[in-house]
Amino acid sequence: MNGIESKVAEPQTEELALVEAARSGDVGAFEQLIKRYDRNVFRIAQHITQNREDAEDVVQDAFIKAYRNLAQFQGNSKFYTWLVRIAVNEALMKLRRRKTAKTVSLDEDVTTDEGSMPREVADWSPNPEQLYDQSELGEILQKTIQALPESFRTVFVLRDIEGMSTEETAEMLNLSVPAVKSRLLRARLQLRERLNRYFKKPKRNGAKPQ
Amino acid sequence: MKCKDFLKELNEYLDGQIDVQLKTELEEHLQWCHDCYVVCNTTRKTIEIYHDNDVYPLPEPIRERLHQAIVTKCKAKSEQQG
Fold first, then answer.
1. For chain B, how many structural domains are there in total?
2. In terms of CA atoms, which chain B residue is nearest residue A135?
3. Closest residue, chain B, to A194 (C-alpha)
4. Which residues of A touch B38 (CB under 8 A)?
């Protein structure tokens, strides 16, 4: 048991050591942190902004901002959570700037049940990913998630792709916990509904259900 | 339990954050309601697919360019303070 526990605890301690070193000006240590999380930051930023150039800018700005503000990092939250909070803010600012003509209503009330009821219920093939090659699958997944309203998409990305807790997601987006839960449910159900058309089992005429 | 009630609890059920009593009730519903059974399974699969497939991979050359840009700015800041 002790062996497993210490293995689990190690990365966190090691990471705090890197943060400590970076705080005292060791850019090499900070580079280790960049290598660890740049893919996550890019993914989150691209999902939120839906724009490649903006996402690259967010990666740069978020890490530079994190470096400059390391003194404020308390160490009672994980470095990753703290970094993602900065990245989400940067990404949302980019999005707002791009959409100044349209209104971006992140705070819109989406607590109604409308749109949550599944319309099409069809079982999927046992391994739906294998119906398509990797690039086709990527395209389907990208197209499908892009079609979600931004406020649902961001919650889904933070909770289900990046593994943040409901509470962390709520704090990052300035939402209540029930609002995060409601958006997550609607995001999951809408994605499911839209993926149906690609992944459902082909109907076999005359075949009896078992 | 009605399908609507099942759907309300679907998140917590999928995330495993649910008390034993409610879990039993939901699983009873799943035993006879094929639609909810399918919705539950395909929603779980939806989450797994998005979790397992990176929709926006970061290509190595862009990664390196970004690293260099970030590190240069960080070094400039350290020297200023230095």
1. 1
2. B55
3. B46
4. 121-123
Q: What tens digit of pLDDT does each residue of A71-108 get? A: 999 877 889 999 999 999 999 999 998 876 455 444 44
Quote ipTM for the complex.
Answer: 0.92
Q: Does A124 touch chain B (CB under 8 A)?
A: yes
Q: Do A60 and B70 touch (CB under 8 A)?
A: yes
Residue B34: which CATH number? 1.10.10
Q: Residue A76 has what pLDDT?
A: 76
Q: Are A93 and B13 in contact (CB under 8 A)?
A: no
Q: Give residues 95 to 114 of A whose Cβ lies within 8 Å of B.
A: 113
pLDDT band at A109 (very low <50, low <70, confident <90, very high): very low
Q: Are A64 and B82 in contact (CB under 8 A)?
A: no
Show the domain range for B72: 3-81
Identify the structural domains of chain A with CATH numbers, from first to last: 2-98 (1.10.1740.10), 128-199 (1.10.10.10)
Structure-derived torsion over alpha carbons of residues A157, A160, A165, A171, reported in degrees to the nearest 10:
20
